[in-house]
Design goal:
The structure holds 2 protein chains of 2 kinds. Chain A contains 14 helices and 12 strands. Chain A is of the alpha/beta class. In chain A, strand 1 (about 40-45), helix 3 (about 60-75) and strand 2 (about 80-85) form a beta-alpha-beta unit. The relative contact order of chain A is 0.15. Helix content of chain B is about 70%, strand content about 5%. A 3-stranded antiparallel β-sheet of chain B has the order 1-2-7. A two-stranded antiparallel ribbon of chain B has the order 3-4. In chain B, strands 5-6 form a two-stranded antiparallel sheet. The chains are: A alpha/beta, B mainly alpha. At the A-B interface, helix 1, helix 4, helix 5, helix 6 and strand 8 of A face helix 3, helix 6, helix 12 and helix 13 of B.
């Protein structure tokens, strides 16, 4: 009886937010079009991926939001950003507060199934690592027995951390703080010996928040696979398709060698694939339910995947392409045929 | 039923509408129906949305392995334990910090409240400034401030401050030595409890004796003697074990002894300092509500000033103090959920993590709503009982 009563109470509470969000699975596209912009959930602050330090939002994850806006509205600025912590992100998406989530989120089975989400692809292949102070003298994660570890709650990172220490028969003291800024501050103040998150995030924290980046070192162990990508609500295939193919278009453009600089010249290309891709030969846009020049708009305004990567990740964090190179160059980035 | 008037028989239906009882029944049915319909609408809406989005429901997840670590816990916990136990850890951590906070805030608040009605200008000024400063800064901001002060202001583990032998103060918290494991300590604790009960019995007896014979028995000091003396006697009987468990630097952190984490300390400090400002005002208003004539009368009867405060002023002030004090206790308990921001693993923090890992937001919210409701009801039941005891008995 008690169980039934309480779940009813909470259901009432949650339904209030759902009613307010006006979610009805299946018509996100119409909602987005009528509101005139894409509501995109991003990180509170993770330079390289999503940060608003310069006054406007920028980063690799932000570029995915912009690509979707360019595809739907022909205007990559038609985005409303919602900064979210790791713990807030899924509820925000489920309840309709945002239309899509682009926030270094790992694609896992439970999230894809029981959380009511769909992953629209991978925009960054990452793995979890450990950041420590150099003067600690630690050279391997296997020496971390008994360390205090800073970590964000509600992340796969938190689970991998516990798994890794358990598997290696080591103890740790978790220091779990929700906000990225606060958790990195705790680490750099010395509250923890180790900061753990995806290696992209570690590089970001080290470059941006450390007083002297050279005092810190990322340990060689990569303890997990973290395919990060944009997420939409389950049950709306039309919107799912648009987000998925906007992301793939950025990768496809790099494969074709189309950049924001040469995209206008490429309109005259005789390659039938490029003609289809850029909407010179119509059909793709119609199939996706957007304008024929959707891909042109993405490349012109946001750039191809390689441009976005160089601008955000290489320049800001000094990370090379690694797994995120095109498949032709030995990486994992592979666009499905746009035809 | 209201007595019938001649006009009632002429137009029975209209008359019914004008009948006070009937009208109130109609209103109640309408309101109840409205609330019921709203509830039903919300629940079915949520059900539909969850189904459409393919989100799993139910409390089955409580048995699944939690797989995340928790830094401090009253009961034993490891990532192998299930979500149910993780939530229990959160509940106990909430109770731990709330209870400690309530006791400390009451002591500080009462002292400052008495200071506010002091005849000494400086004491009044200090009390007033304290209240103005800490009541007007949002609690969350205070938590961030204290936390930054501790983590940045105190040295790291290797440069730990060592104010007393065996005691270390670092940005990982305060480490103090505790008595090493020994069966004696269990019995010392029992002796302590017995001492408390004994002093209560003594107090009763002394009051009875006072009423019967008019003779005063110093039950306060003798009671205190029992509470302190009995455990010491037990300790001596067990051969006075003095071995201590002293914290020592081992690997990355101190091991052994008792550790108070910066997160717990920050939260406790924030809650205590903040709530004490409100309690101080409650105590001040309570004392000021007792007419001056009461203390004058007491003085003219020849009672000592300390007796006047304890036997005349405070019992009357308590009637005014207790109801708003209950509110402050509830506030303190609920405010402990702000710990999410600084990483103390209390109920909301652990529920959030659970909801995020399992996606069971409805169930997670249900659990912490129920627990907070339960704790709040417990506090108010206890305070209501205390209030009744203290209430004016009219003859």
């Amino acid at each position: 009886m008690l169980k039934k009563l309480t779940s009813t109470t909470a259901a009432a509470a949650l339904s209030l937010t759902m009613v307010a969000g006006g979610v009805q699975a299946g018509d996100t596209v119409d909602a987005v079009k009528s509101q005139g912009y894409v509501k995109c959930g991003v990180n509170t602050s993770l330079p390289g991926f999503a940060s608003s330090a310069s006054g406007s939002w920028e980063g690799l994850d932000v570029d995915v939001c912009r690509a979707v806006a360019a595809a739907v509205f022909g205007d990559s600025e038609a985005v409303q950003y919602t900064p979210l912590t790791a713990a807030q992100r899924f509820t925000a998406l489920q309840s309709g507060e945002i239309d899509m989530l682009s926030r270094v989120t790992t694609w896992t089975l439970t999230r894809d199934t029981s959380l009511g989400l769909n992953f629209a692809g991978v925009n960054y292949y990452d793995g979890q690592g450990f950041l420590v102070r150099k003067d600690l003298g630690v050279t391997s994660a296997t020496q971390l027995d008994g360390a205090a570890v800073c970590v964000e709650p509600g992340t796969t990172t938190e689970l991998n951390l516990a798994d890794y220490f358990r598997a290696n028969g080591m103890d740790f003291e978790p220091v779990v703080i929700e906000n990225t800024t606060e958790v990195t501050a705790a680490f750099f103040s010395g509250r923890c010996d180790v900061y753990t998150t995806d290696r992209g995030g570690l590089a970001s924290a080290r470059m941006v928040s450390a007083e002297n980046p050279d005092d810190y070192v990322v340990l060689p162990e990569v303890i997990s696979k973290e395919p990060l990508g944009p997420v939409v609500r389950h049950g709306d295939d039309e919107w799912f398709d648009i987000v998925k193919w906007s992301l793939l278009a950025m990768v496809e453009a790099e494969e074709y060698g189309i950049t924001s600089e040469n995209v206008d010249d490429m309109l005259d290309s005789t390659n039938p694939g490029i003609q289809r891709f850029l909407g010179v030969t119509p059909g793709m846009g119609e199939a996706l339910g957007v304008d024929e020049d959707w891909a042109y708009n993405i490349i012109k305004q946001v750039g191809n995947y390689g441009e976005a990567y160089d601008r955000n990740v290489t320049e800001k964090l000094g990370l090379d392409r690694g797994l995120n190179a095109l498949w032709k160059d030995g990486g994992l980035m592979y666009a499905y045929p746009i035809r | 039923m209201a007595p019938k008037h001649p006009s009632d028989t002429a137009r029975p239906l209209m008359a019914l509408l004008y009948d006070k009882t009937v009208r109130s029944i109609i209103y109640q049915v309408l309101v109840f129906g409205g609330v019921f319909f709203l509830g039903w609408y919300l629940v079915s809406n949520v059900q539909t949305n969850l189904d459409e989005q393919n989100i799993a429901t139910g409390f089955g997840f409580l048995d699944r392995e939690a797989a995340f670590g928790i830094s401090e816990s009253v009961i034993s916990y490891s990532p192998q334990d299930n979500y149910g136990r993780a939530l229990a850890v959160g509940i106990l951590n909430t109770i731990k910090v709330s209870l400690t906070g309530i006791i400390l805030a009451t002591i500080i608040g009462t002292l400052i409240g008495i200071g506010l009605v002091s005849k000494n200008w400086l004491v009044r000024f200090i009390g007033k400034s304290y209240i103005d400063l800490f009541r007007n800064v949002p609690l969350l901001l205070q938590l961030f401030f204290w936390y930054a002060l501790i983590t940045n202001g105190l040295p790291g583990v290797r440069q730990a401050l060592n104010p007393l032998p065996g005691t270390f103060l670092t940005n990982r918290g305060l480490y103090i030595p505790i008595p090493a494991d020994n069966p004696a300590w269990f019995w010392v604790f029992i002796a302590f409890v017995v001492g408390i009960i004994g002093s209560f019995v003594l107090r009763r007896w002394s009051f009875k004796r006072l009423e019967a014979t008019g003779q005063v028995f110093p039950h306060l000091s003798v009671g205190l003697g029992i509470i302190v003396g009995l455990p010491i006697l037990t300790w001596l009987l067990f051969g006075a074990p003095v071995e201590m468990n002293v914290p020592a630097l081992q690997g990355f952190n101190f091991k052994g002894g008792l550790n108070m984490s910066p997160e717990f300390f920050t939260l406790l400090l924030g809650l205590t300092v903040y709530t004490a400002t409100y309690i101080a005002e409650v105590v001040r208003s309570g004392i000021q509500s007792v007419p001056k004539g009461q203390s004058e009368a007491s003085t003219s009867l020849g009672l000592k000033p300390s007796w006047t405060m304890r036997l005349i002023i405070l019992p009357q002030a308590l009637r005014v103090i207790i109801p708003p004090l209950t509110n402050q206790y509830l506030n303190l308990t609920k405010n402990s959920s702000l710990a999410v921001a600084i990483g103390y693993p209390e109920l909301v923090s652990i529920s959030n993590t659970t909801m995020n890992q399992t996606g069971q937001a409805v169930e997670g919210v249900a659990i912490f709503m129920t627990v907070y409701l339960g704790i709040s009801l417990l506090i108010s039941v206890f305070m209501n009982w205390y209030n009744k005891r203290m209430a004016l008995v009219e003859r």
